[in-house]
Specification:
Helix content is 22%, strand content 23%. By secondary structure, the protein is α/β, with parallel strands linked by helices. The termini are far apart. It holds the Pfam family RibD_C. One of its GO terms (molecular function) is 5-amino-6-(5-phosphoribosylamino)uracil reductase activity.
């Protein structure tokens, strides 16, 4: 007798860029004055004053279907120096420490933070293998240079942005891409929270 059970179709893991942006597209050093002063950036710590409970709830939701983070060297070192000894009462502390962390770096030779793995070989090949592996979605947090690499190779599946001079996510030389809005909302504190998916090459027309 032929089985009536259909084999469950396997879905690829998504790579999702999650980042804080100013209204003019700056993603540099949202978390503190000393987080990233590269190129003389003087506005570190700009995100916290505009954060509120709605922003926190939205960010928590971004991790609902994700079980891993993808980090560049700078963001990894910032997180690894903070989260292992962070306040256990912070609802993000346990989650950040327990999640699987994949680290893309040419200079690090080891990673000591709990559940961290240093990716080896070609980063694009490694990430395509990760996307095809078992597991939930993978959030790219901070890691601006890494995000640029992912965007150039077309392996970003979604952008989740909180939008409130420095490094920009969509920097000069970014490949033009059509973005499909999934959801856009504004918190009482004035932060715009947007989710977008790449829609291939942009189309053009005239009136």
């Amino acid at each position: 007798m032929r089985s009536t059970h259909r084999r469950k179709e396997r879905t690829m893991r998504k790579i999702i860029v999650c980042t804080f942006l100013t209204l003019d597209g700056v993603m540099q050093a949202p978390g503190g004055p000393d987080e990233d002063a590269e190129s003389g950036f003087e506005h570190g710590g700009w995100q916290k004053p505009v954060a509120d409970d709605e922003v926190g709830a939205a960010i928590a939701g971004w991790y609902e279907h994700s079980d891993a983070m993808l980090l560049g060297r700078k963001t990894y070192e910032i997180f690894a120096s903070y989260w292992p000894t962070a306040d256990p009462g912070n609802p993000f502390t346990e989650r950040m420490n327990s999640m699987r962390k994949y680290v893309a770096s040419r200079s690090l030779t080891s990673v000591e933070w709990q559940n961290s793995t240093l990716l080896e070989g070609d980063i694009v090949d490694a990430l395509r293998q990760l996307k095809a592996s078992d597991g939930g979605d993978i959030n790219v947090v901070g890691s601006g240079d890494l995000a640029q690499t992912l965007m150039r190779h077309g392996i970003v599946d979604e952008y989740r942005l909180t939008i409130g001079t420095g490094k920009r996510l969509f920097a000069d030389g970014a490949i033009p891409t059509a973005l499909e809005p999934v959801s856009v909302s504004t918190t009482k504190g004035g932060t715009v929270i947007g989710v977008f998916r790449p829609g291939g090459k942009p189309s053009y027309d005239s009136y």
